[in-house]
Structures are given as structure tokens and as C-alpha cells.
Amino acid sequence: MVRLAAIALAVLLPALPAPAATVAYHLDPAASTVAFETDFGPDLITGSIPLEKADLRLDFDNLANCTVEVALDVTGAKASFPFAAQALKGPKVLDAKDFPQMTFESTSVKRAGEAADITGNITIRGVTRTVTLRAQIFRPKGSAATELDHLTVKLSGQVNRSDFGATGWSDMVGDQVRIIITARIDATG
Predict the structure, then answer these.
(1) Which pTM value belongs to this model?
(2) What pLDDT sits at residue 20?
């Protein structure tokens, strides 16, 4: 009898739409940048750190299902002038020799108006702290609102380098490091 009731319900009820699945995305490193800036007296030091790997899984219908894991190659870090690049990778700042990788792993993703806040653990110099990055998603010009296969994600946030023991040249270089990421991502499925 229970089986007949289940069959009758299946026939009588309209088909419900399948829940949206979490989609894996591939990050295009050639079209993406992980950049930073910090104060250097009245000027700025800017630079970038190359992406080593990324695992992005996005669910636009339920942001709580989104996950982001990223690793950066500290040994390839660049800065706006030669001394800064050398100092950046040296033992007083990022210590690329002993800590060649910087990582970020999300712990939550929440809507923030037209953007999203991605909170997670960032590890620099072997020290892990919580950071929140503001993310904005852009579709290619002229694409439909439902077109989510090719996207550009812009993320911004900040960390204090002293929180990670990166205290070298603190008399000349600001503590706050602003993070500016532009990521070109494509759905893999």
C-alpha cells in the first residue's frame, strides 16, 4: 500500500526542479592577478604573488555551499622596485625560503548586498589568521544573467603583516597590506 501511495504521489505531483549543484571552477592563472599594496612613506609599494593552485566550488543559489582553497607561490613574489622584491621574500618579511607557500581556505561565504563576504583562514609564514575578503562577480559584457560559465571575480581585503611576524622594515613600510585579486574563472563541468 505504501508503494502505491508513493507511485500515486510521483504521478500526481508536478516535477520539482532539481536543486542547483555546486559547480567546480578552473582559475585561469594567465588572466588572473593576486596583487597587494602597502604604504611606503608617502608612496606605495605594490606587487604580486603568483598562483600555485586553486580549488573553487561555487553555488550561487546557496552561498553557504561555496568553498575556496588557494595556494600562492611566495618564491615568485614581485614588488614595484628591486629592493622591495628582495626584502619581501627575505627572512624579515615573507621568508620565502622557509615558507614558500601562502594559503587561503574559506570557512564561510555570505551575501553582502550585491557582493559576497568570503571569510577564511589565511596562512602566511606558517601563521594562520582569519580574514574576510569582499567578492564581486562579473559576467562577460552582453551575456545573459543566467550565464555563469565564464566569470571574473574581484576580491579585496586587508591583513596586518605584523599579525604574521612579517615585521621587517616597520619604520619605513606600513603594517596594513591591502589585497586586490582579479580572478578569471571558468566552469569545469
Answers:
(1) 0.86
(2) 58
